[in-house]
Design a protein that fits this description.
Bound molecules: BIS(adenosine)-5'-tetraphosphate
Region (NMP): 37-66
CATH architecture: 3-Layer(aba) Sandwich
Binding site for AMP: 38, 43, 64-66, 92-95, 99, 140, 151
CATH topology: Rossmann fold
Order of helices and strands: EHEHHHEHEHHEH
CATH superfamily: P-loop containing nucleotide triphosphate hydrolases
Binding site for ATP: 17-22, 134, 179
Number of strands: 5
Catalytic activity: AMP + ATP = 2 ADP
Largest sheet: 5 strands, parallel
Function: Catalyzes the reversible transfer of the terminal phosphate group between ATP and AMP. Plays an important role in cellular energy homeostasis and in adenine nucleotide metabolism.
């Protein structure tokens, strides 16, 4: 008999600038699980000048997605680390239907399953304004106005289709991301409470 491993397993999905990274930290704290951001993993590799970083710098700064095969391998490795065995929150992964398939395989191999997919929604004008503000504050390489707008298109074309997949599985918890950071956190907490998570 196989047993399902204990712990909470969540995803957070939404357009660039919807507040995924910001809210991921708070949700992860609530459950005592690691928040794993593929964007952060890629930026750390770029900053560290690793071979991987050199390969992906051009891709991410143009607002394109890193190839699925590479991203899937990195996430599978990360989810195999000790701190993720008892649950995790994935921020920014999966971002394509192929990545959904790869995550399904990783979960199936350990007998684990997702508990919910938090979908953060926000208007394009609002997310563009937020990312332009972040550009002024921190100067991330992919936060120029052209690239910000292009990343919204990439989201609509490549990532939005995964929402339908998770909706069909009854996993999507949709939260309006247009309020203040605290208001959005409270709305996420209430939505997860409602599902007894
Ligand atoms: P990410 O790091 O995921 O970047 P992002 O989509 O812009 O989201 P982020 O989490 O940083 O921003 P947030 O909305 O929290 O990805 C970067 C790149 O990496 C991608 O373009 C791609 O190239 C690559 N990549 C990542 N994952 C990949 C994958 N799975 N496959 C392939 N490629 C992948 O916040 C944005 C700003 O808004 C912040 O400044 C924040 O302070 C502010 N903010 C948040 N909530 C707010 C609120 N309620 N009110 C006002 N401001 C708010």
């Amino acid at each position: 008999m196989t047993t399902t491993p204990a712990g909470t397993r969540l995803l957070i999905v939404g357009p660039p600038g919807a507040g995924k990274g910001t809210q991921a930290a708070r949700i992860a704290e609530r459950y005592g699980i690691p928040a794993i951001s593929t964007g952060d993993i890629f930026r750390a590799n770029i900053a560290g000048g690793t071979e991987l970083g050199q390969r992906i710098q051009e891709i991410t700064s143009a607002g394109n997605l890193v190839p699925d095969s590479l991203t899937n391998e990195i996430v599978a490795d990360r989810l195999g680390q000790d701190d993720a065995v008892g649950g995790f929150l994935l921020d920014g992964y999966p971002r394509t239907v192929d990545q959904v398939r790869a995550l399904d395989e990783v979960l199936a191999a350990s007998g684990a399953a997702l508990d919910a997919v938090v979908l953060l929604t926000a208007d394009t004008d609002e997310v563009v304004a937020r990312l332009l503000k972040r550009a002024a504050d921190s100067g991330r390489a992919d936060d120029t106005e052209d690239v910000i707008r292009y990343r919204q298109d990439v989201y609509r074309e490549q990532t939005e289709p995964i929402v339908a997949v998770y909706r069909d599985r009854g996993l999507v918890v949709e939260v309006d991301g247009m309020g203040s950071i605290d208001e959005v956190s409270q709305a996420i907490a209430a939505a997860l409470d409602e599902r007894s998570l």
